[in-house]
Amino acid sequence: MEPVREDEEVFSWTDVKLPAVGPEPAGLKDWETGSRRRGRDIIMAMDHGPNSKHAFDWALVHLCKIGDTIHLVHAVSSLKNKIVYDTTQGLMEKLALEAIQVAKVRTVARIVEGDVGKAICKEAERIKPAAVVLGSRGRSLMRSVLQGSVGEYCFHNCKSAPIIIVPGKGILSKLEKSLTLPSRSSNY
């Protein structure tokens, strides 16, 4: 655990040891030179909620390329809580396995102690990623401004490009309804 001081606040972190998931995915080498292709670094702020999982899934499909490295970051108020650490390690292992299977990307995981928004921005400063992916609860602009939100804080203070993924509001179910064929008993 290494503390970092920023404006009187101390940020501590611990790296999560992820299990080896097998050999390096094919396609990481440049076909012309045979040298290893340099991928991008992408931070994904994670918690145990469905909105961060939705953002993770979105990023794997729409953002990540072979050779990229995903930095899973989970911010907590205290690293001393063994239950939180064990639960988070289990989540990170599951997400790392999914990332290699779906998008063929490497994964690094870190649990950061401190204020969530500030800790994510500090990690972004340290890693200098191509993007910082965050999930959102989908609250209205007025409510997020009045109550404050991690996404709002990172949007204004993060030096890397924050991508805030808002949860869908039944778009898929509306699309499915519009694509269903009429039944045979209808008078069409």
Automatic annotation (TrEMBL):
Source organism of this protein record: Liquidambar formosana
Residues in coiled coil: none
Organism domain of life: Eukaryota
Residue ranges of domain UspA in the record: 41-166
InterPro entries: UspA
Gene3D superfamilies, A to Z: 3.40.50.12370
Protein name in UniProt: UspA domain-containing protein
